[in-house]
Every structure is written in C-alpha cells, then in structure tokens.
C-alpha cells in the first residue's frame, strides 16, 4: 500500500486488485504501475448513482498470470476534472477524449483536445452516458466544420477519402496531407458508425446483454460475447461447466480461422494477386459454411450466453471437415510465402517500431509482429486455454509481412487447438444457472482475432446493467495505425491498411 | 505468375450452380428467421414476446403480432416458446418489395405490384450496378456482402456488380441503422445517383433499426429517410439471401414471403 491509495474496498470489481485513489494522486499511482512493469490497458468512467459525480477507472496489466489492477477514482461533485495522463501514457489519449465527450469529464493538459467520438456539431443536452440522458432521446446534431490540423505552404494538398469508400467497406474517412505520391500526414476521421452501443446495455438482463455483445463487431461476435459473458460470470461468481469452456474455445478458434483466411485473401486483393485473393476468400467461405453446419450461424451467434452455452453442440465430425480443408490451407499459405510480387509489396511496408506499438497501445497480431510477446490466451488464460498447448508467434520486423506471418502461424495454431479441444472434449452439462447479483461488478477479457477485448460490467441494485464498458481491439489498433502512414507513399496505403486487419464497428461501437 | 495460373486451373470450378440450378442445400444448417405456427400458439402466454429484445414479437389484446423486419434471428423465442409455436427454421430468403409483407397477417392479401417502376426495371434485368453504403452496421452485413464476390457465390456471373461511384449505380444497398453522422453521406450518395434508381435495405438494422436503432446516435434504419424498394431482414442475411433479394428486385425470382408467411 502506498501514499496514493485511499483504502481498499471489501467488494468491487471481481477478479482484479483494486486501489482507490484521489484525483490528484492519479499520476503518482499510474507512475507506480509503470515502474512495476505494468501496461495500462484502458480507462473509462461511469456514474454509480444518477445525478452523482462519475467514477473513473484505469485498468492495468501487471504481467502474465498476475491479477489485473484497477485504479478507481471518484471525482468530487463540484470539480469533474483530472490531470491528463496522455503525455506520459499516450495510449490513454483516446480514452480520455472519449470520457470527455461521453461522460463530461475534463482532462487538464490533454495534448489532443479535439472531438473524437462525437463529431463536431453534436449538441447532447447531457453527456450521453450520464444516466440523466434519456436512452431513447436522439442527440441534436448539425453538420459543422471539422477541427483539422492546420496547413502551411502551397504545395501540400488534402485528399479526403471516404466515409463512403470504394468496394464494400465500412464507413470511415481518411484525410491525406500529401505532395505528389508522398503522404506527409494521415488524419483518420472515425466514429461515423458510433451507435452508442455501451448505453444500450443499461437496464438489460445478462442474457439480453449477450445479444448486444454479439452485435458490437459482427466478425468478432464470439470474442466480444466471450469477454462479456466472462465479465458477468466473474461478477456473479458463476462457474461455467468444463464442456462449455471447451466448446467456447473451439468457437473462438473457428472465428479466428475464417477471419484470418479472409484477411489473407483481402491482402492479395491489395497486392493484385488475383488467384490468391480468390483462394483466400474461398477458404474463408468454406470455414463460414462449416460454422453454419455445426452451429446454425455463419458467425457462430446465438450460442454463448452468461453461464455457458444455450445448447449443446455435436462437434464429433468437425475435425474431419477441417482435416479435409487443411492441406488446401497449408498449400495456399506456402504459395503466398513463395510469391515474390506479393512479398515485394509487403516487406518493409507500414513499419511499426516496437516502442510506438507499446506506447500507443497496439494489440493482437499487430503488437506481436512488432516484437511484443503478449497474448491473453496464454498470459491470462480463460475458457479452456490453460489446458491446451499453444505457441504464441512473435516477429520483430514490424512490417506488413510480419503481420501476415503472425496470422499464418495463428491459422496453424487455431487448427491444432480445435483438434486437441475436440479430442479432449469433456462430457456433461453446458450451462450453469446464473443469478444476477445486485450491484456486482466484473471484468472479462478475450484475445480476439484482432487483439485484446475487455468488458467491465456494473450491475444496478435490481440486478440489471448500470454500465457496460467495451474495450475493443480495433479501437486500440486504429489509434496506432496512422503512425505507420505518416511519411510513406500513396501506393502502399491500401496494402498497409489491409495488413492491419481493422474493423470500424468494433472501434466506433 | 505461371505458378498461380496453374494453381487456379488445378483448383477448378468452385462456384455454386445456385440459383440457376436448384440446390436445396445452398446453406446447409444455417438457421434463418424463426417460423410461426399459429395453430400451436397458446392463449395467455407471452413467453416469446418477453424473450424478444427488438420487439419483433408483440402481444396486444391477446393477439400476437410478428414483424420479421425487426427480427435479428437470435432464436430466443424458439427457446422460450412452451408449445413449439415458434420453431427454428432454415427460412432465410426474406427479401420483400413491400415492408408490410414482413408482418404476419391472418388473411393474405398481397398488395398490387408497382407496375410502372417495374416496367422500367425490366430493362435492368440482366445487369445491375450497386453502390453500397454502410450507415452504421456491426460489419456482419459487410462480411456477407464481401462474400458475394468470392468464387463460391461469384456474383458477376449474374450480371450484378459493385461500383465505386454512385454515378454508375442503379441500386443503393444500405446496411446499418443509420447513425447521425452517416445520414448526410448516405443522402449525398443517393443524390449523386442518376434516375431511375432503387434502394435495398439490407439486414434487420437497415429495415427497422433492429436492436441498434434509436438511442442517442441512431435512426430506425431507412424508415423515413429513403424510399425502399426491397427489404431484406436477417442478422446478417446470408449471401444467398442477398442474391435472392437482388434477383427479386430484378424480377428474376419470386418473393418467398407474403403476409409474414414463408412459402415452402
């Protein structure tokens, strides 16, 4: 216990170590965490009682197999302000801006005091996550000029790309400040798809909450629902039956499989390797069809629920289906790695140094391609991962090719994990009864296809959700991505963006 | 690139013969939206309505009202129903021209087709260019739209193409419940399209808002924003369902759903 602490609560966020801190001691408490080797993961705010001041929570990962630590800071009613930690811990920059817009908290000394989640021209009567904001009330909005980086010198041009982009893509706008072929600065404008998903959990039961979690990012349905359910189960001290834990692991790896195969195909699209594109997308389609065959949903939805699974699955013939596909997948990845025209476009493209990856909050394959070994499946095992052998691939090059190689290795890992899990699948029930505990709180996490996902859930005194915070992997990686675009060229942009494998829905929520 | 040419030739044909040749197992195992069997329905029971988050099932004066335009296919009603009046089904071809056809009616009275517009549409039958706009989806719909161009569905063979510019587009295909920030870009895209032009609301969010409509930042799909020619609920609709709805728009296939009833 150090000077920054107030006292230790007897209840609170299950599965974590908590420290209550005063607003002025937040910097010191964060510094202590950094010195102890911890990495801050996210920050968010909520309103424990309507009309009261918000509480801000900082989540830190103290290393493999250590419990997560949470700093909790209740703000005084008359001064909802905190010192900005973004100058010291850059990855917190976006979380602070989000808290400013959605919860009305001011962060003193923020290096980027610009709108992020709510676009210029939004005029909410209260901050939207304030309980006094009526859940069904539309936010007044008039289109307004944007706050853009200033421009000097006549040669620099601005190219706005999006929000409606070529092909079938999610909506986002990328502004390029460029001279000829050279990109000087890349300024993404995101959150066109901000649907206010966190607010929608308010008042829902755990079971209905799972339907919401499935729809945060469709291609990450399992990862989001898993993290959400684990947060609820932790809050309500519900122990999930072993068979459900194994089936959840299988579902999570099936999701990784179809996503990574699509990723390889889409990347070939950007390097104009046509047959490679067709084959990657075909393999992804075949995996989706296998999903449909075994679960009834190509996106593996309508299965995971707090307490376990809604129904049992017969996966006995799943390995034979995947074994039939395995040689094709292997051959495909082998060919990609032998194709010079493809590799030429990937090697050295979109370089992300390890230090920037760490400081700006990169996660998942992006981080592991820049030399940072960390994977929630092995470091903080959940579902059945503690009992399954697994290799975590890491590369140090930090370029588009390294990001591909990580995913290629993960495809092999996913197949191996599924085979082992089906082999060792326990028998028994797939769901335990779960009773919502009034005012309980819980943290859940999952290493999704694109990286770490965290859910923090707070129940109200009636056992319904008062607040659900979602930390998605794409929110983290979109923050990092522009650092690999500044001072590069237009030709590489599409390849670089594809090599990150980002989603908008997960980022914008 | 001889390596990839040889590879492609060796790999052979991957495309499904559907819909030119009927293939009953087009989406084996994939669950569609639940099927309603009114004869099984118990009076004084509202389990399905209580289990329905998007309020696709509502009960007023003991009458069950079912609107597939709001259904996200979560299957909770099929689990909640004590008498199998709601059952899981493989019904996914839910594209309809008239929004009302997604609502269950006891007496079937399909409205008249809009003949003039369909007359013009006749000339587009063999070729259609689509501009897609993501107005705030969860990306499940995008994932299935992207799948349309994979070798299995191979949308091009049907004369249907995605186009980057709205200037070349005949159809505006919209996904998502329409966020406040995407409303402007969506309308600008629509305004940039030459007439005649059509709109397809793809996915339950675009049809009615589903469970993501409303709130501080979303509309309820295209309701009151754009005139819709084909509604396709589903969460998300699978690629075959999207193709079926596109062919329905082009009058190259029939509508499966009338008055909320799915033709077998």
Keywords:
heterodimer; A: 509 residues; alpha+beta; Beta Polymerase, domain 2; Cytochrome-c3 Hydrogenase, chain B; 2 domains; 4-stranded mixed β-sheet; 38% helix; 16% strand; disordered N terminus; B: 264 residues; alpha/beta; Alpha-Beta Plaits; Rossmann fold; 5-stranded parallel β-sheet; two-stranded antiparallel sheet; 23% helix
Written account of the structure:
The complex is a heterodimer of chains A (509) and B (264). Chain A is built from 16 helices and 15 strands. Chain A has two domains: 96 residues, Beta Polymerase, domain 2; 312 residues, Orthogonal Bundle (Cytochrome-c3 Hydrogenase, chain B), CATH 1.10.645.10. In chain A, the strands form five sheets. Chain A has a four-stranded mixed β-sheet. A four-stranded mixed β-sheet of chain A has the order 2-5-4-3. A three-stranded antiparallel β-sheet of chain A has the order 8-9-10, with no helix packed on it. Chain A starts with 12 loop residues before the first strand and ends with a helix. With 509 residues, chain A is of the alpha+beta class. The N terminus of chain A is likely disordered. Chain B has 264 residues and is an alpha/beta fold. Chain B has two domains: 68 residues, Alpha-Beta Plaits (2-Layer Sandwich); 139 residues, 3-Layer(aba) Sandwich (Rossmann fold), CATH 3.40.50.12280. In chain B, 23% of the residues lie in helices and 15% in strands. Chain B is built from eight helices and eleven strands. In chain B, the strands form four sheets. In chain B, strands 6-5-7-8-9 form a five-stranded parallel β-sheet, sandwiched between helices. The termini of chain B are far apart. At the A-B interface, helix 3, helix 4, helix 6, helix 7 and helix 16 of A face helix 1, strand 5, helix 5 and helix 6 of B.
Low-confidence stretches of chain B: 107-113
Lateral arrangement of strands in the main beta sheet of chain A: 1-13-14-15
CATH topology of the largest domain in chain A: Cytochrome-c3 Hydrogenase, chain B
Strand content of chain A: 15-25%
> Which outline of chain B best applies?
globular
CATH architecture of the largest domain in chain B: 3-Layer(aba) Sandwich
CATH superfamily of the largest domain in chain A: Cytochrome-c3 Hydrogenase, chain B
According to DSSP, the number of beta strands of chain A is 15
């Amino acid at each position: 216990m150090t000077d920054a602490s107030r006292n230790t609560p007897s209840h609170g966020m299950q599965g974590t170590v908590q420290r209550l801190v005063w607003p002025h001691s937040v910097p010191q408490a964060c510094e202590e965490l950094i010195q102890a080797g911890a990495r801050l993961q996210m920050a968010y705010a909520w309103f424990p009682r309507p009309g009261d001041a918000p509480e801000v929570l900082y989540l830190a990962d103290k290393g493999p197999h250590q419990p997560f630590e949470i700093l909790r800071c209740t703000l005084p009613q008359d001064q909802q302000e905190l010192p900005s930690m973004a100058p010291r811990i850059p990855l917190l920059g976006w979380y602070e801006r989000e808290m400013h817009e959605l919860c009305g908290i001011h962060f003193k000394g923020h290096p980027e005091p610009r709108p992020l989640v709510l676009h210029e021209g939004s005029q909410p009567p209260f901050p939207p996550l304030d309980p006094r904001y009526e859940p069904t009330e539309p936010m007044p909005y008039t289109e307004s000029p944007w706050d853009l980086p200033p421009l000097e010198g006549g040669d620099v041009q601005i190219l706005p790309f999006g929000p409606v982009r070529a092909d079938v893509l999610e909506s986002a706008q990328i502004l390029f400040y460029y001279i000829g072929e050279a990109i000087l600065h890349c300024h993404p404008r995101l959150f066109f798809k901000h649907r206010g998903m966190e607010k929608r959990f308010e008042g829902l039961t755990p079971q209905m909450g799972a339907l919401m979690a499935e729809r945060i990012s469709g291609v990450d349905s399992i990862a989001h629902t898993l993290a959400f359910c684990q947060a609820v189960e932790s809050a309500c001290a519900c122990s999930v039956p072993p068979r459900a834990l194994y089936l959840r692991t299988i579902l999570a790896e099936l999701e990784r499989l179809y996503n990574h195969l699509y990723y390889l195909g889409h990347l070939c699209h950007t390097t104009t390797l046509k047959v490679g594109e067709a084959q990657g997308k075909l393999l992804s389609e075949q995996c989706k069809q296998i999903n449909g065959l075994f679960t009834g949903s190509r996106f593996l939805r309508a299965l995971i629920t707090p307490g376990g699974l809604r129904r049992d699955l017969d996966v006995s013939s799943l390995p034979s289906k995947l074994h039939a596909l395995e040689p094709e997948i292997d051959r495909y990845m082998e060919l990609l790695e032998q194709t010079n025209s493809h590799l030429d476009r990937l090697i050295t493209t979109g370089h992300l140094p390890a230090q920037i990856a760490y400081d700006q909050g990169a996660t998942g394959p992006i981080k592991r391609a820049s030399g940072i070994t960390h994977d929630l499946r092995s470091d903080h095992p959940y579902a059945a991962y503690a009992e399954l052998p697994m290799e975590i691939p890491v590369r140090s090059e930090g370029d588009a090719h390294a990001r591909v190689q990580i995913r290629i290795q993960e495809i092999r890992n996913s197949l191996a994990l599924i085979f082992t899990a089906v082999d060792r699948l326990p028998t028994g029930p797939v769901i335990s009864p779960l009773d919502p505990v009034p005012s309980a709180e819980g943290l859940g996490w999952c290493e999704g296809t694109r990286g770490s996902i965290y859910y923090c859930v707070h129940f109200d005194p009636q056992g319904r959700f008062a607040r659900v915070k979602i930390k998605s992997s794409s929110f983290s990686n979109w923050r990092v991505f522009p650092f690999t675009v500044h001072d590069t060229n237009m030709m590489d942009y599409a390849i670089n963006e594809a090599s990150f494998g980002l989603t908008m829905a997960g980022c914008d929520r | 690139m001889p390596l990839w040419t040889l590879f492609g030739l060796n790999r052979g044909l991957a495309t499904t013969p559907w819909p030119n040749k009927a293939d009953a197992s087009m989406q084996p195992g994939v669950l569609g939206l639940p099927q309603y069997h009114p004869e099984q329905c118990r009076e004084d029971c509202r389990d399905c309505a209580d289990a329905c988050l998007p309020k696709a099932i509502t009960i007023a004066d003991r009458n069950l009202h079912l609107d597939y335009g709001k259904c996200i296919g979560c299957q909770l009603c099929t689990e909640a129903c004590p008498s199998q009046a709601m059952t899981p089904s493989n019904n996914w071809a839910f594209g309809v021209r008239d929004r009302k056809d997604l609502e269950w009616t006891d007496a079937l009275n399909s409205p008249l087709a809009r003949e003039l517009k369909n007359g013009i549409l006749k000339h587009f039958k063999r070729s259609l260019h689509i501009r897609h706009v993501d107005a705030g989806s969860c990306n499940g719909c995008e994932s299935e739209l992207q799948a349309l161009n994979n070798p299995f569905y191979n949308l091009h063979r049907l004369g249907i193409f995605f186009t980057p510019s709205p200037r070349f587009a005949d159809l505006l295909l919209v996904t998502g419940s329409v966020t406040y920030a995407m409303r402007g870009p969506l309308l600008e895209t629509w305004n940039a399209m030459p007439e005649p032009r059509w709109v397809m609301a793809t996915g339950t969010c675009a049809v009615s808002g589903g469970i993501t409509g409303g709130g501080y930042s979303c509309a309820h799909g295209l309701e009151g924003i754009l005139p819709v020619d084909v509604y396709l609920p589903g969460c998300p609709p699978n690629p075959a369902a999207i193709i079926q709805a596109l062919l329905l728009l082009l009058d190259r296939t029939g509508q499966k759903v009338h008055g909320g009833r799915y033709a077998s």
